[in-house]
Fold each of these.
Amino acid sequence: MLTMWKRQHPVLSLCKSVELRHRSTDFQNTTRPADQTDIKPFQEIPGPGGIYKWPIIGPLLLFGSSGDGAQKVFDRLFDLYGPIFKVQLFETHVVLSNPKDFETVFRNEGKSPSRPNISIINAFSKRQGLKEPMINLQGEEWYSLRNAANKYLLKADSALHYLSTQNEIADDFVKVLTQQGTMDNDLLFRYTTESISVVVFNKRLGLLASNVSQEMLDIFTATRNVGELIAEAESGKSVMHSYFRNRTYRDFEDSYLKIRKRASQDYYIAKAEVEKREKEGTFQSDGRNLLLSLIKEKSLTDDEANNILSSMYIGGADSTSKSLELLLFNLAVNPDKQELLRKEIISLIGSDGPLTASALAQMSYLKACVKESFRVKFPMFAGRNRALPNDCVLSGYKVPAGTNILMMNPRALKLEYADQQAFTPERWLRSNQDRKSDAASNLIISPFGHGPRSCLGQRLAMQEMYIATVKVLQKLHLDLDPESKNTEFAYKLFLEPVKPLRFIVTKLK
Ligand code: HEM
């Protein structure tokens, strides 16, 4: 691998000092205090040097010239340097693959963990003179918004409020799927956008209807564009958007403005309705409807409530459609597992019933399939980045406070599991004595990050994935056209098939 990359990579092949310093199993205990004498200084963390450290040119050479996805470049760097290395990506980043280091990072992240911002959203906020959305906020500002949102989103039953409406959405999704006989990511994206809209806008957009209004189609297209352009910016394809309004930036601005305008309009319409009903004495909210709760939340201004909602909208649609696509892919290429899951579903709710909270609680094979899908095809390449408030020790090196740290779960999973590509949900069943349940294993498998800054929509995301899978398998057999079965996957921001997948569905007898 090392020789291959040196041969392919025009500049690195000139570096004489490159050596394989690490074996993948060489995990060290990294929880020692930062003042111990055998701790190596930050400068000694290995990584590409010379021209690769130059601003702009360095990252362009590293990620631009190889022609490979960013993950392949990172994989080669891990092969070269071991479980920790430094790389210049505009700022210096420390990149990790050892789960013990992940634990150290999360243990030291503090009360308001700092996650470096999404640069294209940051550029937008600056140019428009707007406050950053919560997803990009830091410190106290982030903390107070997140605290308010947690009350409504991270309780064990917070997603269940939407279960019955989301069942209806999934029924519509399956109806379209049955009529079409095939499915691509566009249909999955419609399903997840519709599902998140009932949470954020408290209403359906009608994206699964046969006659979608032009207005809603525009919102849908803008939502897709925002997801794609964030991925383009974050995966290094657009590097200049922070410096000038390049094409990626202009397209992003156009789409994001449309979404913000729509979200704000719906918020104020809902607020006016709440006030009217309060005056009439007919307003009722049990505190489980997110939009109504945020409107009534005394600790938030309207702008802050809007901020949370728009962060959820942009965080929620693309991510879940991509993870759902990976899950359905795994079930389609593993028909025996698909059949076992179908048996569980039919035994609990039959072939027509809705997915109820009590049935969901009993669907252990479904949950095992989703977890296994995350393990086999980890959905997000980066995303769990941190900058720590204090110095810490990672893999024996001192890492100063404020350094950008990237935790690479796909690499950690590859090292942890010899059978990384084998889809075996049974490994997660409680009846399995060998089930891994230690903290490090849980950290590398969770696609939602960890700690106070973990994904705000994780309960909703899981619920949407569960409902869609249950509803599809209740009615349809899921397969892929032969070409799609061999498609490769690569990370943009999320893991995606290199060529669009074409699922083929047939009605069950
Ligand atoms: C399977 C789908 C999803 C995946 C894989 C995913 C993954 C993530 C990850 C890795 C983070 C960063 C966590 C960290 O820094 O520790 C995150 C943050 C976030 N996610 Fe998700 N997410 C998904 C679905 C959703 C949904 C459905 C929503 C909204 C309803 C959402 C809203 C957010 C928000 C608002 C944040 C920022 C939280 C903050 O900064 O406090 N996500 N997500």
Amino acid sequence: RQSPYDLLYADGVRAYFARDWPRAAELLQRALHSYSQLREARRACQGRCAEEAGFAGSPGPAAASWETRFFDRVLQRAECLGECLGRRLGAEPSLHRASREIQEDFEQREPYNYLQVALFQLKKLDEAVSAAHTFFIANPQHLQMREDMEKYQRMAGVKPGSFRDLQATPYWEVYEAGVQHYNVDEYLQAAVKLEESLKEVLLALEDCRALCEGLQEDGTEEEMQPGLYEAIAAHYIQVLKCRQHCVLEIATKPGRVSATDDFIPAHFDLLQFAYDQVGNQALAAECAASYLLFYPADEMMLEKMRQYQAKLGERASVTARENIQRYVQRSLREKKLIYYALEHLGGTFNDPDPWTPDELVPESLKEKHRENQEKQRLKNLDVGQQEQRGPLTFEGITITMDSLQLNGSQRVVFDRVLTDSECKDLLRLAKAAGGTGDGYRGRQSPHTPHERFEGLTVLRALQLAQDGTVNWRDAKLLLHASEKSRKIVESYFTPGKRLHFSFTHLVCRTAVEGEQDGRMDLSHPVHADNCLLDPEGKECWREPPAYMFRDYSGILYLNDDFQGGSLFFTELDAVTITAQVRPKCGRLVAFSSGGENPHGVWAVTRGRRCAIALWYTLSPEHAEQERMEAEVLMRQGDTEQEQSYTDDEVHVGADRSGEASPEPPVPKGRARSTSQRRMPGSESGQQPQELQARDEL
Ligand SMILES: O=C(O)CCC(=O)C(=O)O
Ligand SMILES: [Fe+3]
């Protein structure tokens, strides 16, 4: 028989303040145990009663009204729950209803904080450390505990194995292991881990939802008691909202404030690519179809689906996973009910899912819905900015300077992103395109009369390649280099979240000869990339015409044989310089696009300065359309080229860094077409895909 956890906790804390350590430790441990028993019992009973009430229940006379039938079921279920819980807990379930504050304390792992002190006083070092660690995981900003943890780490007699998380959510470890494998192109291991994490995530989600039903928010101090139906409706909607919220709960790592966006769809995004890479097209297609349940209009995924259909043949019907279909349908049903209630009964709802289709939201709530989504996105971004950096995806790349060395926040300089020969090829591309005059004329710079300014987009580059004006491989290299940069920036700044292209161009600034004496202006005046800089007000306005949706900026430099032209960062006043970056081949500078990073470019006073300028967004609806067109062109072109290519185009595998190769290994980004044909012997040395497809059928 369990005592209620809130009473045990209260007694434990009392003993703690009385410095009665043995009693405090014992009571706190019992409180934690009771709490987890209660949750376990709720889960189990919820599950059992959902099943039972579904099958039992006499059908009743056919004439019984829906009301009778409905209440029959409801009462049965309530009875079942009460009985089940009572039996498991050995007490009236209502005894186990704790106040909101206490519940929150347990959710925040607060009892472990008291417990670790008590255990430490009792000289139970190993247990004290694991209690402290368990608390710290969920409260990384807790300064006192940070100090304590450091002390524990230095203490003789503390084993590394003592730093255990007693409330570990195992799927996070598995998920992160999966993403790590994915990032280093170990797709087989990635798929195994991600499947495992997906399974655990879905289970955890059901657990979380089961706990919603028992929940009755008290403390609505309304004078008027609502009527039966209002009360039922209000409670039901509350349960629905709680269930919907579970997705965020599951996707929030302990100790983090914000959830990983689109956690479940992200699994399919990753799995699709991983399966594709290991040659399992059937599973890749199934994952693509599952992803499309969330984003039915996602062009990239639709295109992949078409390719899979074509490869696998019409007969092989590709369908989404059944459990995910059910998941999405159930979620949509719940959302519909909630939105209906909002419209007619009022209230608020923060939809946790970015994928909720627009049609589902009633007209009158759309504006608010969009505002909420945007707010959520910005909040995530803010939180993301405080978080530590993710692991780097590519070997051979170095981090030359981080935010600290660059005297600001969300800034980084990478080197060796491109090889010298790649820079040469890209410069040749810029030059060749510059010669065409059409669409890419050396115009006067929009920023200064002393420079010419040329910009070439990826789509334009491929179009020029198609009609033979520029080298096909150089144009492809532009796509690859920008994708490689995207992956680097994503893994560094937004690990686990997808970063989309917003705009990319290859841009050269050339000093106009004879117009440089006494020049006072800049090549690019100080600005921020996603807001309007107001140096007087020391503010940055996130409003049109700024590209508000741009979240990260990157500039990949191609050369250094020019005078002037360094990039510099300033404070919001636009004059206090905080850091400078000298361009050179293969150097990528990246930073968040907001008011925290005003920047400009010194005048280019001799020669020509070329770079690939890149902007990224976290919001899929602002992803660049041109990019996808360019990728389609690239694939088409590849197919044509393949037929006419000769031996010298085939480079032998194993060269992952691309150092020695004239053509870099194809970056394996998610955006890349998955059906792109490979030449025998290229890259990873796999078989051509035609063969793989046949093997599978
Ligand atoms: O080329 C550079 O170094 C910076 C360019 C830039 O800030 C921009 O185009 O927004
Ligand atoms: Fe800029």
Amino acid sequence: MAIKYGRPIELREVSRRDSTAVPHALDLTVRPRRNRKAEWARRMVRENVLTTDDLIWPLFLIDGHNKREQVASMPGVDRLSVDQAVREAERAMKLTIPCIALFPYTDPSLRDEEGSEATNPDNLVCQAVRAIKKEFPEIGILCDVALDPFTSHGHDGLISDGKILNDETVAVLVRQALVQAEAGCDIIAPSDMMDGRVAAIREGLDRSGLLDVQIMAYAAKYASAFYGPFRDAIGSAKTLTGDKRTYQMDSANTDEALREVELDIAEGADMVMVKPGMPYLDVVRRVKDTFAMPTFVYQVSGEYAMIAAAANNGWLDGERAMMESLLAFKRAGADGVLSYFAPKAAEKLRTQG
Ligand SMILES: NCC(=O)CCC(=O)O
Ligand SMILES: [Mg+2]
């Protein structure tokens, strides 16, 4: 008997009825709707679940005290002074979100060509790491490694004659990773897409005795239009000159994503990431199937903004769209999601119980 999708094909041909108790009933042996007839039945056959363990919550930092500043293009997301970030870390803990990620808005006066503020051991990110770890050592903290929040030109690396320099940038990224790790960061997440940075950072961490600091590599990061609101949030939107296509990936490619991921694993990445999320679910699936590594996905600012804006206009049920978009990542094979929806989704998951 030929089997396809779990049923003998021949069974479909068999006519079982000459008469039926139900008028107009179709002669169907198989009725997939039976398994969807009630919530309890749907729960029994559900293949994928989202839990609060799947969430990483990115927070934006700003200088000052007791300050919260709305990010215009990300309704519901604020830039936070360090004391407020500590409060949100507490909220994350209470919501059982395992990890938060920190991104600084850097005042234009502190930005320069080289992104020097990135390696300042007392920069906003390091201050926040220390403050959060002091009060809540149990929460995981992820720090991004790249120069874009700190450079006057908004690029992730050093620039010369309009070219983003690879090897020179990597040397600076190692120093950036070290100041963050020394401040107490648990996961270093290079998002710069320079070649060879994972190996160099791993070596730098190990040499400093920071053997347990993990690396989550933004391994397949695409040059994407969906980062627009994030650049607003960190203050790079106005300053960015040109685009990032000489270092971030071409959105047409997926084989290349596998090569990038393979390299980062070989260089010592503990976890890998695909970014953005929803437009690249196929890449998430391929990466997970190919490498069976802890695989994360970043639901980026533009994905958040699309759902939030449509919901605010009454065009979408925002909560349902949020949960559906997050579950899609699990279905595609992701082990976790960086999402600005994290606290909202966690609240919903906890009330659902
Ligand atoms: N390196 C972190 C990002 O670039 C985030 C992008 C986004 O949320 O749009
Ligand atoms: Mg790479």
Amino acid sequence: MKITDIREARASIASPIANAYIDFSKMDVSVVAIHTDVIRDGEPVVGYGFNSNGRYAQQGLLRDRFIPRLRDATAEMIVDETGENLDPFRIWEILMQNEKPGGHGERSVAVGVLDMAVWDIVAKIEARPLAQVLAERFGDGSTDARVAVYAAGGYYYPDDDLERLREEMRGYLTLGYTATKMKIGGVPLADDLRRIDAALEVIEKPECLAVDANGRFDEATTLAYARGMEHYGLRWFEEAGDPLDYEIQKALGKAYSGATATGENLFSHQDVRNLMRYAGMRADRDILQMDPVLSYGLVEYLRMLDELRAAGFSTRNCIPHGGHQFALNIAAGLKLGGNESYPRVFAPFGGFADSTPIEDGQVRIPDVPGIGFEDKAALMDTLRAHLD
Ligand SMILES: O=C([O-])CC(=O)C(=O)O
Ligand SMILES: [Mg+2]
């Protein structure tokens, strides 16, 4: 088999929302399509990839370095031992040739976008959902029939008020979600506590509401929020301090009895190893949110899981960031703790297949080959509009 074409483009996901650190008025993502000469159902197999929100489109890196490396590789260099499918691990080595260690981030996004498309192809050639492929290759052979998902939102809006937030939370419950997440850190603590109270009027169960500070706080503010929020018993307190400031995370873990969450801005297994070494993470409650597509793809995510296991954590500690179907397949196939979802933001890249509604806070993997993009009409329309 061989790759016949690689296309990339940039797609806007701009919106007026803001978290404690950035607004999304200029946010965009890279989208790629990798075409092959393998025929399934009468059509050449095409794999799709895109990055999730938070990091921007990576067109320069894709065009100048990573796509040319893949284009220049011979057919023998990129296939597995059967010669009939791609080998994502060999492709990863080709993408990363002549890249120095360290300084992860941004290039990890470019590689992750291509890696997503490669795994979509692998599962399409096997004519099975990616979750099943992963369960057999790297898991215990079976997939989780349903994955717990939570609705991430609760952003700051230009015309913010508490009723808008309550209305948003009501909407998530109507869609079938039982758990949600909202932003903190964009306004003073007293105002954030009023926002949490408003969300809890709707969600009712504090163990079903998580809060996310997006790395905004210094240590003193982290501890002030920990004291202010501890009595609620919330689901988790996410990214209190800078993602690489493991001392802040450690101080939080010591001071705060509730669960904490972090990892969406760690892009390599070396960063995860350091988190395990220095951040005082607690295996009995804390959540790890590394996002496979932002962090060099599934090939690297498997190495991160090895780091976690070595430190005494379970795959169930992991609830990836990003709200995409790629992470959903990984969650089902490798038995993670759940997956993020963005029902109201970052359309059409957030949310899951059209045929799998959220039921009681959980979602199934659709029975379609690959990652399942073809079962999500709005996403396919966007991908095709940019890449055909
Ligand atoms: O607002 C963002 O950057 C997204 C985010 O942190 C999340 O989904 O946890
Ligand atoms: Mg977050």
